Structures are given as structure tokens and as C-alpha cells.
Amino acid sequence: MKKTFIYIGSLVAAVALLAGCAGKRAASIPNYGPPMPDSIAVMPVMNETVDMKAPGVVRPIVYQKVIDRGYASPSLQTVDEILAQHHIHEAGEINQFTAQQLGEMFSVDAILYTTITDWSTTWLAIYASQTVGLRLELRSTKDNQLLWDGHDTVTERSIAGNERQIVGLAVAASLSPYQPLVQKTVNRIFRKLPYAPHHD
Q: Where in the sequence is the domain holding 153, given as residue range(s)?
């Protein structure tokens, strides 16, 4: 009987010790994270899809969300003009420069890279859908450290109830502008981006 009490007591002590350690680890997590920048330059958008118009829709929406979050940001026209001075005319050419070098060009604390991962319209029988997928990375111009990243894919679906609606659904899916869906996707991703340190 005494051995049983000793065993149970040891087990309780071990569980208490483990719980105490777990509590200490959890308490340190909320205080961890790199400091956020004050200024961000929004780069031309990388496109992994076949729609060549997609970057022109995505980039202004991303830029506006950066401004809305309180970050200082050079205009897209200014960014493009400076890139052109360095013989960069396509988004894929940006990779020849480091975040530090880009930071010197634009005098900002961080660089925001955006990639379109999905941009598609699908219709089949009574079903139609549009999908937008985006991936964003924010890197420090001081040391190329990843400060924040986010990605999401959003699909909006419609279902027709009869043959006439099926035809109308297919036409609408092929002609429907992507801006509202892009805005929704960007909004979802930016929920996780902290506001600028000096945001009012």
C-alpha cells in the first residue's frame, strides 16, 4: 500500500512539473516577433497563372491595403519609374536585387513581394466558380529577414436552377470581373498584418 501511495505521489508531482514547464513556454510566445517597419515598397506582382491582366488588378488593391494599415509607401508609379532606371521592366527581374538593395533604391524599411498563385474561372453543368489565390512576403531591407507572410485562396461559387440559368451562369462566369474577389482575398490576408507602429 505504501508503494502505491509513493507511486501516485510521484506521478502527480511529475504532471505538475510538466504543466509548469508548459505554462512557461506558452507565456513567452505572445512576446515573440520581429519589429514591424514604418515604410513599405510594393513590388510588381509575380504571376504564376496564364492571365496577363491579373497583376494589374492585384497590385493596386494590395498597395491600398498597405496604406490602410498605416504604412508609408511610395506610389506604384514612383516604384516602377525607379525600377525602370535600373533596367527592371518585369516582375521576374526583381530577384536580381536583394531586399537590401531595393531598400536603398526606395528608402524604405521593407519590401512587399506578391505572387498570384491562382486566377481561374470554372463552369460545369449547373456549377460555376471563380478562384483567386495570393501569396505575400514582407522582408526587411536591413537584413532580408522575413517580417510577415500570408497566403489565401478564395473561391466564389454559383449554382443554376434551370437550363436558362445555366447558360446565363456560364456567360457571367466568363465575363465577371475579378476585382471583388481579389479585394476579398487581400482583405483576408491582411487581417494578419499588424498595423504600422505609428498608426493612429
A: 37-190
